[in-house]
Amino acid sequence: MVSSYIGAMRTLLNYNKVIETGYAKYRGGMFKIPVMNNWMVVISGPELLSEYSRAREQDLSMGSATSKVIFRMSH
């Protein structure tokens, strides 16, 4: 728990550097950045951005994804 707050503080202090490093390392993919209470997911690259913009709300919903996993595990 404490380490997540340390990561979030580093992000706040070096926000541009964190974004640049993530983009350089995961160009065309996704990466996550710690923020105070959770993670921010960054999507980069035209293909992923296009796919994200076409996705339905239920396909992006955490609740929907959790329900699908639970359903699959129960069968």
SSE topology sketch:
Layout: H1 2-13, H2 15-25, E1 30-34, E2 39-43, H3 46-54, H4 57-60, H5 62-74
Antiparallel strand pairs: 1-2
Radius of gyration: 16 Å
Strand content: 5-15%
Major sheet: 2 strands, antiparallel
Q: Which structural class fits the helix and strand makeup?
A: alpha+beta
Question: Care to describe what's here?
Answer:
It contains 5 helices and 2 strands, in the order ααββααα. It has helices spanning 2-13, 15-25, 46-54, 57-60, 62-74, and strands at 30-34, 39-43. Strands 1-2 form a two-stranded antiparallel sheet. β1 (30-34) and β2 form a beta hairpin.
Features:
75 residues; two-stranded antiparallel ribbon; 2 strands
Structure, briefly:
The protein is α+β, with helices and mostly antiparallel strands and 75 residues long. The chain is 65% helix and 13% strand. A two-stranded antiparallel ribbon has the order 1-2.
